[in-house]
User: Which sequence fits this backbone?
């Protein structure tokens, strides 16, 4: 039996839950819980209800799988965006990173991860078939593969390339301004923006990397 660390079981349970959040250790979790205890009841209820509503009511865009308050996200519903240009990203955070560059005016497709056999993630676990369906619909003219330049990212890029290579769609990838092995979300906005603007044909990028 694990010994109780704090004088209150309620406090202990709250700290344990906060400590499950990424980047939050037990000391930070305790500080956050004690902060909440100092707040008035209405503010704590608002905090809790906001998180509960987020989990219960958040939607995923039926087109690109980005998070949204509606069935179709604001980006996909924006008539000024170029629907012929689709940027493929690993997750929602990557959409936010690219949007912050203000350099991309097309649409997105969020895979929900990357192929990683070590983690038990295969192509069927990702939104790859829905991307293929978007290509088959005929409106997409260019696919930008904007996955992190890691081994898993490159594997996913190549798998997607093979799935849609027979189509007439142009397939490009972000320029290697983002260092190999880096996660996309940690790239600065200038570097990421230039990587989007200076994208290259995927076949050229693949050959270049194989020759290095």
Assistant:
């Amino acid at each position: 039996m694990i010994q109780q660390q704090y004088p209150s079981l309620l406090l202990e349970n709250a700290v344990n839950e906060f400590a499950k959040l990424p980047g939050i250790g037990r000391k930070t979790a305790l500080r956050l819980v004690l902060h909440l205890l100092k707040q008035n009841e209405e503010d704590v209820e608002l905090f809790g209800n906001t998180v509960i509503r987020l989990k219960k009511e958040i939607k995923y865009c039926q087109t690109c799988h980005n998070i949204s308050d509606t069935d179709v996200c604001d980006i996909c519903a924006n008539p000024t965006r170029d629907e012929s240009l689709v940027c493929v990203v690993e997750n929602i955070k990557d959409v936010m990173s690219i949007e912050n560059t203000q350099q991309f005016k097309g649409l997105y497709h969020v895979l929900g991860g990357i192929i990683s056999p070590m983690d038990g993630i295969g192509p069927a676990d990702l939104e790859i078939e829905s991307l293929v369906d978007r290509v088959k619909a005929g409106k997409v003219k260019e696919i930008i593969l904007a996955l992190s330049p890691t081994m898993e990212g490159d594997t996913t890029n190549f798998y997607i390339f093979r799935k849609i290579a027979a189509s007439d769609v142009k397939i490009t990838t972000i320029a290697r301004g983002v260092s190999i092995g880096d996660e996309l979300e940690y790239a600065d906005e200038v570097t990421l923006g230039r990587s989007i603007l200076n994208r290259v044909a995927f076949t050229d990028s693949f050959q270049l990397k194989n020759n290095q």
